[in-house]
Amino acid sequence: MTVEVFSQRNPQWAGEHYGLPQAAKTSTIGDFGCGITAIAKKLTLLGWPTTPLDVQRRLLEFRAFKPEGTFNFIDWPKVPLAYPQFQFNGRADTPNAPAPVRVLSLITDRLVMDNPVIIYVDATPYVKGLQQHFVLVTSTLESGDLVIHNPWNGKVQDLRAYGRTDAIAVCGVILLDPNVTRKAA
Q: Structural domain of residue 91, as residue ranges?
């Protein structure tokens, strides 16, 4: 079975506006849509096929973007308003230090339950300042290394582009888990 890897730069949606209407006209899914692309891929893998463009529209409809700053940051606790098949169970942020074992366990424990995990890495790890890039962890290699679906390049890969080890690459984990008490919208 071939599993499509979504790319935020797919011409079907890359040029579409991303975030709230107040976001800059240059805010496009192609440039900034890694988070919604990871959400779309997670939904699709869990049996609710969708696209990044559909996720953009639903998050906008349910006001799940932060109404401040650049107007294109996902308000993660509000994602379940748009997708009640998810529940938000918090986040673990470790952008300035290697992720501790307890944070890496949040990922691997979910993978064992066939629950892909949205994490963020530094898109430019060797340049000063964190540039959040959301990816979807879907499995591990025999070595234990994490395997991701990368929204930027549309590839299935390990995290070596973002750090020498998974602990160095992982800057944070978004705990958006299946909601077993609610039905899908």
A: 29-178
